[in-house]
Amino acid sequence: MTLEQGRSASRWLLAAAYLAAGVLHLLRPAPFLAITPDWVPAPEAVIALTGIAEIAGAVGLCVPPLRRAAGWGLAAYAVCVFPANIHHALDNVAVGGAVLGWGYHAPRLALQPVLVWWALFAAGITSWPWRAR
User: Fold this and answer.
1) Structure confidence by residue, pLDDT tens digits, 121-133
2) pTM (predicted TM-score)
3) Taking phi first (over 0 means left), then psi (-120 to 50 degrees means alpha), and beta for anything else, what does residue 99 get?
4) How far apart are CA 114 and CA 106, in angstroms?
5) Tens of pLDDT along 36-67?
């Protein structure tokens, strides 16, 4: 597989994941509301807007003229939602009656920077670590 084939496969997989997450944010906001920190204003509106942002980012990754902007946007999005992931982990917030524990939270928190990189890679913004030196 070439770098560009890998990037294309990566882009479609990431777009599908963000599209699914965005639809879930809009259709079933309760789990996302549960992990939203108390200091976030208008949490219902924020969850709806994050769903729209995920869908827009997913579509943007698939449209070449929008791809770079979508990559930057999804990378920024992954940074912006990190406080909710920290809140979810540290406050042991139950979602749907289930407390997930550190077996779930540790990998999720550790992989958040990977989501930032993945958005940039899928959009063609970076080729690290595979670019020629």
Assistant:
1) 999 999 888 875 5
2) 0.90
3) beta
4) 13
5) 999 999 999 999 999 999 999 999 999 999 99
Which residues span the domain enclosing 12? 3-122
The phi, psi pair for 64, rounded to 5°, reads: -50, -45
Domain count, the chain: 1
- Would residue 45 count as lying in a domain? yes
Q: Please, what's the b/e burial string for 104-113 (b: 16 or more CB within 10 A of its CB; e: otherwise)?
A: ebeeebeeee
CA separation for the pair 6, 128 (Å, rounded): 13
Instruction: List, as one string, the DSSP characters of 68-118.
Output: HHHHHHHHHHHHHTHHHHHHHHHTT--BTTB---HHHHHHHHHHHHHHHHH
Distance CA 67, CA 70 (A): 5
